[in-house]
């Protein structure tokens, strides 16, 4: 169905006139201090009766006034916001950076009765059904951040390959000085170095944060005054990466 037709049907179902919508948008514009939120009667008519696409502010106004989900309305205009995170994984970029979290995650809902979580198995064959879950519902109050290892970032290779997706806990910013048994257990941190980010091992020497790369990476350690020149964003608590480039 034509997006404008959907908008008109919803407005009529709510018994709102063009004038009602315009007045409500004026109130939104006043509340947020931006005239871009205003939807004039002529513009609303264009949105409903032609192929005109609403801008961001007017889309917000329409969703607020009509009580619509912006993600669903974007689908009407062939903008799949739900795919934003996963489509973005195809465009990592050369430098390591933070990323917005996914809106939804696909997780296994039911398993084959023979599935044994204590044994290594071929998971694809064991999952009977998958389901989509809101990413926010899985955060458990942590507010995890996501980061991409840039395709030109070889600091932790081969432990963390370029293009890897890392899960960062911003509540674990304290640099640990020991207690691990091997390099796999040694904490990896995402560090804001003001000009970009480093994902690496760290040591703290007084007010200097020393960034340490993986020994096989051929990168040299770097030292920054903290917090002026560098600051720990959080500890890496999860990673997803390809072992073979495609």
In terms of structural class, how would the helical and strand content be classed?
alpha+beta
- The share of residues in helices is 25-40%
* Total beta strand runs: 10
H and E string: HHHHHHEEHEEEEEEEE
How far do the termini sit from each other? 38 Å
Tell me the overall shape: elongated
Furnish the topology, listing elements before pairings.
Elements: H1 3-13, H2 18-32, H3 41-49, H4 56-66, H5 70-76, H6 84-88, E1 97-99, E2 104-111, H7 123-126, E3 127-134, E4 145-148, E5 165-169, E6 189-192, E7 197-205, E8 208-212, E9 222-225, E10 231-240
Antiparallel strand pairs: 1-4, 2-3, 4-5, 5-10, 6-7, 6-10, 7-8, 8-9
Explained architecture:
It is a single chain. With 246 residues, this protein is an alpha+beta fold. The model has no long low-confidence stretch (mean pLDDT 87). It has 7 helices and 10 strands. The strands form 2 sheets. The chain has an 8-stranded antiparallel beta sheet, with no helix packed on it. Strand 7 (197-205) and strand 8 form a beta hairpin. The protein folds into 3 domains: 3-76, 434 Repressor (Amino-terminal Domain) (Orthogonal Bundle); 102-138, no CATH class; 145-240, Ribbon (Umud Fragment, subunit A), CATH 2.10.109.10. Helix 1 (3-13) packs across helix 3 and helix 2 packs across helix 4 (56-66). The chain has helices at 3-13, 18-32, 41-49, 56-66, 70-76, 84-88, 123-126; strands at residues 97-99, 104-111, 127-134, 145-148, 165-169, 189-192, 197-205, 208-212, 222-225, 231-240. The chain is elongated and about 70 Å long.
């Amino acid at each position: 169905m034509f997006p404008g037709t959907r908008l008109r049907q919803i407005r009529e179902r709510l018994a709102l006139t063009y004038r009602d919508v315009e007045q409500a948008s004026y109130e939104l514009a006043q509340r947020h201090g931006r005239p871009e939120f205003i939807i004039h009667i002529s513009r609303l008519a264009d949105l409903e009766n032609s192929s005109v696409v609403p801008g961001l502010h007017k889309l917000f106004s329409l969703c607020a006034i009509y009580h619509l989900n912006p993600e669903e309305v974007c689908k009407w205009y062939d903008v799949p916001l739900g795919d934003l995170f996963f489509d973005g994984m195809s465009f990592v970029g050369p430098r390591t950076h933070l990323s917005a979290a996914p809106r939804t995650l696909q997780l296994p809902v039911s398993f084959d009765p023979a599935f044994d979580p204590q044994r290594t198995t071929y998971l694809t064959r064991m999952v009977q059904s998958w389901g989509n879950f809101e990413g926010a519902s899985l955060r458990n109050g942590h507010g995890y951040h996501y980061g991409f290892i840039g395709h030109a970032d070889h600091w932790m290779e081969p432990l963390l390959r370029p293009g890897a997706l890392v899960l960062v806990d911003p509540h674990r910013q304290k640099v640990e000085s020991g207690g691990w048994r091997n390099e796999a257990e040694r904490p990896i941190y995402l560090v804001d170095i003001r000009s970009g980010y480093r994902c690496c091992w760290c040591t703290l020497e007084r007010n200097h944060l020393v960034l340490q790369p993986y020994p096989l990476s051929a990168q040299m350690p770097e030292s920054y005054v903290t917090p002026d020149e560098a600051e720990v964003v959080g500890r890496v608590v999860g990673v997803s990466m390809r072992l073979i480039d495609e």
